[in-house]
Amino acid sequence: MRRGAGALAAFAIGWMAGCNFAPVGPNYIRPDIPAPPAFREVPPPAEGWKAGQPRDDAQRGNWWEIYGDPLLNSLEEQVAINNQNVRAAAANYRAAVQAVQVARAGLYPVVSGGGAVTGAQQSANRFGGTFVVSNPLYDIQLPISATWEPDVWGQIRKTIEQNVANAQATVADLENALLSLRSQLAILYFEVQGLDAQQQILASAVAAYEQALQLTTNRFNQGVASQVDVAQAQTQLETARAQQTETQVLRAQYEHAIAVLIGKAPAEFRLERHPLTLQPPPTPAGLPSELLERRPDIAAAERRVAAANAQIGIAETAFYPTVTLAATFGIESSNIAKLFTWPSRFWSVGPTLAQTLWEAGRRRAVTEEAQAAYDANAAAYRQTVLTAFQQVEDDLSTLRLLDIESGEQGRAVEAAQRSLNLANIRYTGGITTYLEVITAQNALLSSQQIAEQLLTRRMVASVSLVRDIGGGWNAALDLPAAEAIQAVR
Known about the structure:
- The chain is α+β, with helices and mostly antiparallel strands.
- The protein contains 9 helices and 5 strands; from the N terminus they run H-H-H-E-E-E-H-H-H-E-E-H-H-H.
- The chain has helices at residues 2-18, 70-82, 84-105, 155-221, 227-261, 296-316, 362-428, 434-468, 483-487; strands spanning 110-113, 116-120, 137-148, 322-333, 345-354.
- Strands 1, 2, 3, 4 and 5 form a 5-stranded antiparallel sheet that branches.
């Protein structure tokens, strides 16, 4: 009978080990997304277009290099090294990778060992009468035990699938953090340069207003101009100086924000003044919607749908019985001299089957909860895609319209300059009052400031477009699949 029981246990273990049932639960299929064949703001090319799909295994290239600014390049490189938000995202990725390893460990048995030495002495006054007190009893055990729960219904495999998807999502989260912070840095950088250009315009205006004030004061001293003209010239000068100060306030705030982005205290960072002179890089005429594959937030949302799908399978395995295989082997003796002899051996082996018979609908509710979570993640994924298309369309239309507006504003600056020249001639000739000159000067300053602000807005819109298509549109900037993704596959 002992041989029969042992043979039956060995057969059960071997049969369970050889079983490889398909995992319970639905197979993952990426949700359909409403992807148009082209952007409305870009004429469609003749061929080469396809519906955008997320690419969670594509690292972003050095997209900021398209602006050709060495200082910007050096600042962008520091974001990945020193920014604390990036470090936090990287730590989350490392934790997700280890979660995959934890899940994979469930495929294998758990082996444990130990040792125990016990001694016992019976009482001579035990209940039931008087006994002869024997010598103390000693027992020495050195057991090794193993337990294994075969993945018959695929719960562990589904857990691995879920954790791999979560790890891939954290990679996309890391890339998204880098893309967001780097684009934020580029925007702040161009904003600072735009403010430097504003300072340059205001400095020229202040110099011109000082000359105008001096001229008006001289004419007042000669009895040609009135004291009102002098007061108006003084007001105009001080107003321009106040604008200079306000510009410095904004510049300091942007400079401090850049310092934090590169992981430095604001007191340790200073950005030299450099007026904005760059022009936005041209947008390719055939920008296809497939470039949205590069967006890491889309990739992260899609991977979370896959993780939610795996969770449905994990929940459904609760409807099936649990099989556990256990085995123990060791040696035991009351005499240490005989501990390592063959008669001291002991062992036990056998499977255990457990099935939940009633739990008031808990398993069904957990499964429905997992299904609802999947539906929510799928909807969030589709919404992320729709939002991405909206953002790109916004960026393209903004760039196109700002380019038109910039040309119109350039002509407005030229007209304002001509108007000022004529006003100065009329004023020095005594034909008109100084109010006409002030009006023309203010119109020119305002037109110049608007023109410079439009250039800054165009640069910001250019960075936004790069960010919203996932990090640049130059295919040569694409890098091979991320090593981090390969590590969890």
